[in-house]
């Protein structure tokens, strides 16, 4: 009895360690900052194990094991508990399938009957220990290859209903394989065996068709949403462009009218030989002209100029100076509307972040445009009030509530990818930057 209980506890602890390491090393889920949750989990594990040690029921042990795993997911890791739970459940069903397929293969090779009696064995403990070693082995090689963030980001970006479909698919696959095992054990009753196989096969086929249809409908919906969002961005860019042209025309008309009046005033001063007053008047007029000229940016692209000049005025109202270094080539294959969408969203987000800096003299936005070897480089850098991890942007992009920064960053990424470019988010101390590269886009 004591030996049985010890083996059960060891197997459960191995399985718990396996689940924890899978979430932490493979998926790289972040742990909660409050360590008190770990103490609560440890206390619950001890209580549940003490309850489970009082019985030899295998089903009860499995239920307790699953309960502890979900408690670990809910209390130890950051993020959406439901999504983390679905990720964990997907990994669990995947492990079950591996074990089940291996067991079915052995049964087929050995031509033995199915034994549905679950028994504790040292073999199961060794299996759990091998899984722990396998996770550590994969995690080590992911870290060595410096690609450890690619897979976790892909997993976290997937919508939660994908996990519902995936878990359901794994469950039906598990049932189907289990059915094959059971039907193999019913060789004495071939009619019942065939009926069982056909029924489960039809159910699995219906599920596959339904799941495929749901994914296709979702992909179509996402495509049309992206297209509508892109059209909205284009319309906004066009409105801004024509609005700035209209404002420019008004400024020119006003400047012409004011210039005519100013010249008349200077003629009067000159006629009356008031040279000192005339000199002061001309200096004042010159300073006004210089100030008006400094407000304009010339990037060699009219649409970009219109957007940036509008954003410069917006930044000036918020106390955020914006500077442009460099200019665009005369002819590039990148869509002008996409350039406007990239710069307007990047600079707008930069203004929002700069506004959070209490000291106005530390607010600064720098737009850099460089051309080299047929490659166009665009960088939007700004100061921030606190250190921000570059992963901030990826997390914002795919969160469900995209009312803050997410929709702007996602628009930038889609516009860059649409033109075959690359984008990178960098963070260093109190400065963050969005760096974009477009290859083979300069037309000679």
Poorly predicted regions are: 111-120, 395-404
How many alpha or pi helices? Answer: 13
CATH architectural grouping of the largest domain: 2-Layer Sandwich
| CATH class category label of the largest domain | Alpha Beta
Task: Report the CATH superfamily of the largest domain.
Answer: Histidine kinase-like ATPase, C-terminal domain
Helical percentage: 55-70%
Average pLDDT, all residues: 69
Domains (count): 2
The count of DSSP E runs of length 2 or more, i.e. the number of strands, is 5
Morphology: elongated
| Major sheet description | 5 strands, mixed
How far apart the termini lie comes to 84 Å
What is the strand arrangement across the widest sheet?
1-2-3-5-4
The secondary structure category is alpha+beta
Oligomeric assembly: single chain
Strand content: 5-15%
Provide the succession of SSEs. Answer: HHHHHHHHHHEHEEHHEE
Rounded to the nearest angstrom, the radius of gyration is 33 Å
CATH topology-level name of the largest domain: Heat Shock Protein 90
List key phrases describing it.
single chain, about 450 residues, alpha+beta, Heat Shock Protein 90, 2 domains, five-stranded mixed sheet, 5 strands, about 70% helix
